[in-house]
Amino acid sequence: MEMSLGLPQLIEKARSELSKIIGLEISSTLGASQEDDGWWRVTVEAIEKHSIPDSMDILATYEAKLDPAGNMAEFNRIKMRKRIDTEDGEV
Fold first, then answer.
1. Which helix (H) or strand (E) holds 80?
2. Residue 18 dihedral angles phi and psi, to the nearest 5°
3. Please, which of 10, 22, 30, 80 could form a disulfide with 5 given CB 3.0 to 4.6 Å?
4. pTM of the shown model
């Protein structure tokens, strides 16, 4: 029987594996949720391109899907934005 990971360990594993796969540093974790089937979705943001000024950095949002043991099965880049562009509802 595989031992399940706690949320902090699962997020760290997702961040580490995704960083290796995409070759970018993960700048922040945006969310994590467990689905009804026990699988996890972890959403993170990474800097795709550094710019000067840094408010013009290009940020990408990635979503990773992990099994209940924390093994990554899938990832997708779901959007990109300039750092200066806030999302709807953000202040």
1. strand 72-82
2. -65, -40
3. 10
4. 0.83
